[in-house]
């Protein structure tokens, strides 16, 4: 396909190419830090430094690549981190570590011939201070989604989406530890083989997956299971992130037989989008407010073929700034299961009250 016809088919082709490049480079930095964590004994210390380094480093690289690849765009990013803590006394060593890690990742990536100073790094981190909102274009970034999974050597994701006039129009989800082939036994998939998946979707163009290192993209789709008895569902690995007693009562109402698949981060959305499971439920504890960067990317990857709703059956609204202003609970599944799952969720919530 020529570049002209590609742009005609996908009006966000340039943004998508830049976002894929940004996420792949950030994921490379994260992989390196995660290997370091697993070789040392960070888990036994209350030391969050490696995560901090990877979080900030990932945000710096994404910010840098987007600005380099899309120089004519006005840049606005809603992201999790800012540089406040790194500007404090005593943070110099961490800042130096981040700067050298970022520069090494850029050098090894081979696309850019440049070196960042510590000031450049701080400025790039603060590129994520935007509030987003209903007008204009804003990037939405979670530089490391699934921090605890990251520390354990498990699933995490680099999640980058684009908001245009209040709607998520594009999403790229880098999952360095998720096998490229389906993890679902029913799909004939196994967890052996290549690891590292890059999911991406653009509004109106469906969802695809390729190897994090680059490969021929494959079209993906949510499963077409229509009987909840045959469905398996995803939930957060960390019990503190979701009400498990409520989820199990919902599963019981639906007659779901399979045990829940517990996974950290928006990698769940990627796995769901290619049919590794049928339902993702997230019912947070009372008072917890979801952020836009925790769901924007995952939701567009799934809605390319499936549905994502809140517990009242409404679409998620990402136009309200940094937080999701919505009913408690998020449900992602296919169009066949959504009505029955929604009904079970609402009944279980009513009973709980």
General description of the model:
With 353 residues, the protein is of the alpha+beta class. It has 2 domains: 3-177, 2-Layer Sandwich (Fructose-1,6-Bisphosphatase, Chain A, domain 1), CATH 3.30.540.10; 228-351, 3-Layer(aba) Sandwich (D-Maltodextrin-Binding Protein, domain 2). The protein is built from 10 helices and 12 strands. A 7-stranded mixed β-sheet has the order 1-2-3-4-5-6-7, with helices on both faces. Strand 3 (157-164) and strand 4 (167-179) form a beta hairpin. Helix 2 packs antiparallel against helix 3 (49-69). The longest helix is centred in the N-terminal third of the chain and has 27 residues, at 13-39. It starts with a helix and ends with a helix. The relative contact order is 0.12. Mean pLDDT is 89; it is low at 42-46 and 186-191. InterPro entries: DPNP, Inositol_monoP_metal-BS, Inositol_monoP_superfamily, Inositol_monophosphatase-like.
